[in-house]
Predict the structure.
Amino acid sequence: MSSLTDTSVTQLPCPTLAQLEAEGAPEEKALFRQLDAVAETRDIHLPLLDELLHLPKGRVVQYLHAKARACTEKVYGDRIFLRALIEISSYCKNDCFYCGIRRSNTTLARYRMEEGTILDCCAEGYAHGMRTFVLQSGEDAWWTDERLCRIVDTLHRRHPDCAITLSLGERSRESYRRLFEAGASRYLLRHETADAAHYARLHPAEMSYEHRMQCLQDLKEIGYQVGCGFMVGSPGQSPQTLWQDLQFIRRFQPHMVGIGPFVATQQTPFAGEPNGSVEDCLRLLSLIRLLHPHVLLPATTALGTLHPFGRELGVLAGANVLMPNVSPVENREKYHIYDNKICLDDGVDHCIDCLERRLQSVGRRMVVDRGDFQV
């Protein structure tokens, strides 16, 4: 589909909607009106999505991003919310074809963090102004409900002004309920694709598309703020499957959506596949913002992995969340979900200073805030 050239973020044109209206040619203005209709109806038809994914960069794409920025600013202003990411275990029972911590990767050094270390990481994130903790892991049965509830309860008591987010994969409804009652209020579980055949292309036979969707429904019914999401450019993906993803987001109305480009990873069946398109990811970020204006939308690390200014570009496309990694530096390479992940050696001080400068360059500011979904 579309491609993005490497350029300095300070050189990226960010024209306003009014400027684009004044300069647009008649055929461009016709597409502007279609994008206005997307924002008004919060829906998009497949032919328009297909066209937007294949358009060369120009005023129409700039209009899409400007429209998404205006939508973000109307709901959240210029604020960017930080989530302290703690990767608590690289063990996983699953064998997803795209993931570097799949169980068949016998070359990976595995780890589990001790409970005290997890609490220390959260305390460091808190000291740096982060008011959401994200505990992320492969699907590791060692982390029983009892162990997890103990950590969640302790965090909830130590940091009552913070949100506790879990990203631990598929669990039983009862497990989700117990963790919610212990103090977790958000859960991230990427749906990966809203097309059952595409899901089967990405996962082994023992994993079920229906079960993934049921887990998301269970989480929402229990009362979590729920995040779903997908990779952009995964093998077998098409404009049709992406349209189904957008329609699922419209129906499900998640509180968060995490998307990032597919990154081909060694020791996986997809090692030889091409990486996903950063440009496609940016266009989809903007469309998700128009379809679901209040959603919390991260500019993911994968964007920064494939483009030196990927996260800034994500913010300019409508994202309003960043997730600095506060895990111990010695563990980060072992949580090898994809190749060439950035910031593996950065301390938290350096990371926050870097992000603050990057955000200032695009007219945004990080805030000390839980960053809850705004109704």
